[in-house]
Amino acid sequence: MDPLQLLENHRDELLDDVVARLQGNLPQYTLLNAAELRQNAGPLVDQLIAFLRTGNEAGLTQALLVTAELRVRQGFALSEFLQALFAAFPAVRELLDRHSGGDVAVARAYSMIESRAVTMLASAANIFSEMSARQLQAKNRELNSLNQRLQAAERRLAAEADQTSRQLDTAVELNQGVIESLSAGVMVIEPNDQLVSLYTSRMENILGIPSEQALGRPVLDALQGLRGLDGRALLEMVVLRGRLPITRLHLHRPDGRSVAVYVRAQRMFDRHGDPMGTVVVVDDVTERELLVDSFSRYVSRDLLNRVLSRAEPVALGGERRVCTVFFADIRGFTALAEDLPPEDLHSLLNDYFRVVIGQITAHGGFVDKFIGDNVMALFSEGPAAQTAVAAARAARGVLLQVEELNLRRAVAELAPIRVGIGLNVGEVLLGNIGSEDRMDFTAIGDAVNVAARLQSMATGGEVLMSGAVAEHVRGLFPLEDRGRRPVRGRTQDIGVFVMSAGH
Q1: Rounded distance, CA 384 to CA 451, Å?
Q2: Looking at the whole model, is its pTM more than 0.70?
């Protein structure tokens, strides 16, 4: 009976026995997946049988190379690799005994197998040692290369640090002059005792605290005359995060004056990572706040913020956007204006505009323009459905508050006012029109024209809306379908819906 034929016939059984022995007796091999281990061992077993049959080592050597390289990458030691090879031979002997029935010829043949196995093991040891040496050499080359790069980086950093140090030494006087010339106030706080070591004259002007009361004192004591400033909380944030992002504060100085400021702070560290102190910068934006507050009474705050936040000059042009357009107008205003003295007319308009603007702003819209008693507003933040609902709520609020206003006017024996409102949602071009010298931020397009026509069709106390608006607000407000109506300036009729104040 040919023992090698037995091994070939029962190859899969032999592989199972070998894997079981490896994972049962060698701890390192228990970490490997059994299926993967069996797949790795398969070619090695096949080449071993071929070697035992022919004596040709080429195929076995290649299989050993592949396996050795894999085990080296996995971190196996030479002893663990050889133990695995030794563990395979008892599996071979047991399989031969199991399937030969104790045949003496098979037993003698196994001695030949063991003899050749010794040659294989010696070859395997050499191969594994060579692979380990190659890996070690590659790691040494990598470490040497890394060490050279680190040394070069250290030399470069040392040169840069030396150059920076010289630059800092020569720039100290210049920096002090620059700091004093800044429009912002600057204060430096020592890292350990929190004493104020630098306090510019501009900081003195902004905070109203003289430098002699600040320099050399703990910062919390120096600033205790300021109201509106939680100095302890700000310092804790700087220590925790390393910086204080720009924070807007309204401060009350010791002299009673109020100032609006932006405060920011940054902890500074030397090149060794040791703290050098905290730099606090304070910008006085009181004038800017007054400017914003004043001009927002003449143009929408949305427009003002757009202009102030631009990094480039304002130019003509715009962007397409879907929004809801709101028009409101006093019915019979011309007749009222003829009968009222200018002072009473001024008072009436102020009461009316206060109601309309208040409701528009409260529901997220902004006033685009006034045309006499006509107010045009836009609701542009969010999807179309959201802007339509916001505009409808603002319209309903206007009618309700106008009713309350008329009750007060009745007590004063003044004529009531009636307001008609038109709403439409659609795509507009939102941006600047006019010339480079005089611009107006507004919306143009068919959606604007339809809203204006609806407003002109509304009677006092009515909100007329297009079918597009009605689709978004249906179910939130009871609506009355007025059918399709012709609109001046358009070839196609539009669906018209009414919502009254009573709803």
Answers
A1: 15
A2: no
